[in-house]
């Protein structure tokens, strides 16, 4: 198939794209959270084997990839492409974490929207028959994000209630052209939107306009309504960003936001320590989508879902130079195939 | 010698300076780094106009423990040396009185890095 | 079309509406209490140094500060300081214990990059502004004071 509208890629006819298997590794807080039991592997300590935070993240990514390959019953030699991302500078989580796999690799980056960017590109590769099997994943780690973007982890800075907690974990999926229970039917590529938010403590607010724009563009391109989806999940807007995107969608005339939720809200319970407005990070959307939302689909509770991962496009330097924070959001449609 | 009133004022003045810091953090977009720098400068200025030393006499640790006292100590060191050696003493004397704070922080910070890993 | 100024301004209003209010009164009271307590502990230590350490009252501030810095470094090394700092806010950041926490936490964190570039090169990452602006402002204050008294 082809492009519909300006931003949406249609994979629903021709060579189909299916989820062959997933692997999820969760850190301590995530394992203790409301979705904890859904994840395949739980870290006892966010520092793996006493090594550095960065090496711990790479280890998680590698472990999640290994589990995904086992679940999909695919060997890494059978993969045609590897697409992935993380939040570390120069994508060292992805490149160093998965370097053991002898597979052509494409690192991508759109901050916390990367998982959907990765899924879109991998789906395009399979659909256009440039490959038969792809592995897509993201990782993030609360301490690597903290020390890169904010402060040393033992520093006592008081965070405001709009702050979010970077998820420690990794979510990986193996995509294939062989039919399975879950099909990826569409991808909508988002535009970068800057609504002038400057505070790195308000990333939910920075990303909400991009989420609203991408969701609206997706519905316009496909001719669908919000109610055509059993669940519409944004990546990591958090509780406050979720309220904002709801209002923005209402302003666009999209008022049926009953099934709208957010992965950052789902992954933590507000009684857990220092989660503030909710989860964020490259693995937030991938852990919740692969670990929980797809399981809900397999259990028959969701037939068709739209996942719109959201990214805040700042750097360690940009906010210090008083730049505002643009946002981007990429969306993927997952559909349950009957009889599988 | 500190009296019982020093103990009361230590709490009130120390708490008060911290409360001012908190208000600055909550009412403005300033980072903790900005607020600490502002408080140090304030301590230096207050000593320059002769107000900080009486505060130390009154409140003891309530004035010498907050970061403002760092600014106060830097000015003291500078003026002490300037008194003895003229204008150049301002440069040669700045760190004289604050040695305890900076040396302790560097040494104990270094040792902590040697024995402990961050827990995240 | 790109985002217009009007759209941006409207959105800022929307964000403001949903921004949870910082609990300013609660934060200030907590900062006051914790800051006061830390200074109170300092006062006790200072009194001990005067009585048993034979320090003059004007000199006892120095070893007191050194002891508090030691305690702060220990609490930071144990991974405890940042926990209570979220609750205490400026109450833990403003006393000299906060200064020690910035240096200790940065040193610990960057040990993974080695001793020279990591610990040595990053120790003053957060404390730097305090030292720089303290020294620069003290220079000018002392200079002005000196000139004024010698006119």
Overview of this structure, please?
The complex is a heterotrimer of chains A (340), B (120) and C (151). Chain A is of the alpha/beta class. Chain A folds into 2 domains: 174 residues, Stage V sporulation protein AD (Peroxisomal Thiolase, Chain A, domain 1, 3-Layer(aba) Sandwich); 155 residues, Stage V sporulation protein AD (Peroxisomal Thiolase, Chain A, domain 1). Chain A is 32% helix and 23% strand. Chain A is built from 9 helices and 15 strands. In chain A, the strands form 2 sheets. In chain A, strands 1, 2, 3, 4, 5, 6, 7, 9, 10, 11, 12, 14 and 15 form a 13-stranded mixed sheet that branches. In chain A, strands 8-13 form a two-stranded parallel sheet. In chain A, β1 and β2 form a beta hairpin. In chain A, α6 crosses α7. Chain B has 120 residues and is mainly α. Chain B has one domain. The longest helix of chain B has 24 residues. The termini of chain B are far apart. The relative contact order of chain B is 0.11. With 151 residues, chain C is an all-alpha fold. Chain C has one domain. Chain C has 8 helices and no strands. In chain C, α2 crosses α3, α3 packs across α6 and α6 packs antiparallel against α7. Chain C is extended and about 75 Å long. The mean pLDDT of chain C is 94. Chains in contact: A-B, A-C, B-C.
What percentage of amino acids of chain C are in beta strands?
Answer: under 5%
Biggest interface and which pair forms it? B-C, 80 and 77 residues
Radius of gyration of chain C: 22 Å
Structural class of chain C: mainly alpha
Reading off the top of the CATH hierarchy, the class of the largest domain in chain A is best stated as Alpha Beta
Q: Roughly what is the average pLDDT of chain C, rounded to an integer? A: 94
Tell me the structural class of chain A. alpha/beta
What is the overall silhouette of chain A? Answer: globular
| Alpha-carbon distance between the two ends of chain A | 23 Å
Distance between the termini of chain C: 65 Å
- The H-level CATH homologous superfamily of the largest domain in chain A, spelled out, is Stage V sporulation protein AD
Our count of helices of chain C gives 8
| CATH domain fold name of the largest domain in chain A | Peroxisomal Thiolase, Chain A, domain 1
Put simply, the count of helices of chain A is 9
Order of helices and strands of chain A: EEEHEHEHEHEHEEEHEHEHEHEE
Helix content of chain C: over 70%
């Amino acid at each position: 198939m082809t492009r519909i509208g300006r931003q949406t890629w249609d994979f629903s006819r021709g060579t189909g794209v299916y989820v062959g298997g997933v692997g999820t590794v969760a850190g301590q807080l995530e394992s203790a959270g409301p979705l904890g039991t859904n994840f395949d592997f739980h870290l006892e300590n966010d520092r793996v084997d006493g090594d550095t935070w960065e090496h711990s993240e790479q280890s998680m990514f590698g472990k999640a990839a290994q589990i995904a390959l086992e679940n999909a019953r695919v060997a890494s030699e059978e993969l045609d492409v590897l697409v992935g991302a993380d939040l570390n500078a120069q994508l060292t989580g992805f490149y160093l974490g998965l370097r053991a796999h002898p597979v052509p690799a494409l690192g991508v980056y759109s901050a916390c929207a990367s998982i959907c960017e990765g899924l879109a590109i991998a789906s395009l590769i399979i659909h256009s028959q440039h490959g038969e099997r792809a592995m897509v994943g993201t990782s993030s780690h609360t301490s690597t994000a903290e020390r890169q973007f904010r402060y040393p982890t033992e520093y006592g800075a008081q965070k405001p209630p709009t702050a979010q907690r970077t998820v420690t974990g990794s979510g990986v999926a193996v995509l294939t052209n062989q039919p399975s229970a879950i099909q990826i039917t569409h991808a909508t590529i988002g535009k970068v939107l800057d609504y002038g938010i400057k505070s790195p403590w308000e990333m939910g607010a920075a990303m909400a306009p991009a989420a609203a724009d991408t969701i609206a563009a997706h519905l316009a391109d496909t001719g669908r309504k919000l109610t055509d989806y059993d669940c519409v999940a944004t990546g990591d807007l958090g509780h406050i960003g979720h309220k904002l995107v709801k209002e923005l969608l209402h302003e666009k005339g999209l008022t049926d936001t009953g099934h709208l939720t957010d992965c950052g809200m789902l992954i933590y319970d507000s009684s857990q320590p220092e989660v503030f407005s909710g989860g964020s990070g490259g693995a937030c959307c991938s852990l919740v989508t692969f670990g929980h939302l797809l399981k809900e689909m397999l259990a028959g509770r969701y037939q068709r879902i739209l996942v719109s991962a959201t990214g805040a496009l700042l750097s360690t330097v940009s906010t210090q130079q008083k730049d505002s924070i643009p946002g981007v959001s990429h969306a993927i449609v997952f559909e349950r195939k009957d009889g599988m | 010698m500190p009296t019982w009133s020093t103990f009361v004022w230590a709490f009130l003045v120390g708490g008060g300076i911290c409360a001012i810091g908190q208000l600055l953090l909550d009412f403005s977009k300033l980072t903790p780094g900005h607020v600490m720098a502002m408080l140090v400068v304030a301590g230096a200025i207050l000593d320059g106009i002769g107000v900080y030393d009486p505060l130390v006499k009154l409140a003891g640790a309530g004035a010498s423990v907050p970061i403002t006292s760092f600014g106060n100590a830097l000015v003291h060191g500078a003026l002490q040396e300037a008194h003895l050696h003229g204008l150049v003493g301002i440069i040669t004397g700045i760190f004289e009185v604050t040695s305890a704070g900076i040396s302790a922080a560097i040494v104990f910070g270094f040792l902590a890095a040697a024995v402990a890993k961050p827990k995240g | 079309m790109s985002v217009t100024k009007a759209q941006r301004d409207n959105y800022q209003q929307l964000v403001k509406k949903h921004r949870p209010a910082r609990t300013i009164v609660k934060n200030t009271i907590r900062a006051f209490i914790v800051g006061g307590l830390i200074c109170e502990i300092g006062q006790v230590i200072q009194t001990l140094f005067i009585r048993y350490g034979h320090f003059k009252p004007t000199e006892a501030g120095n070893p007191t500060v050194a002891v508090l810095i030691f305690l702060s470094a220990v609490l930071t090394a144990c991974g405890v300081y940042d926990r209570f700092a979220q609750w205490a806010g400026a109450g833990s950041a403003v006393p000299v214990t906060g200064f020690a926490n910035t240096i200790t936490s940065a040193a610990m964190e960057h040990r993974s990059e080695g001793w020279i570039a990591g610990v040595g090169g990053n120790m003053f990452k957060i404390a730097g502004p305090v030292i720089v602006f303290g020294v620069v402002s003290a220079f000018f204050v002392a200079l002005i004071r000196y000139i004024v008294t010698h006119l």
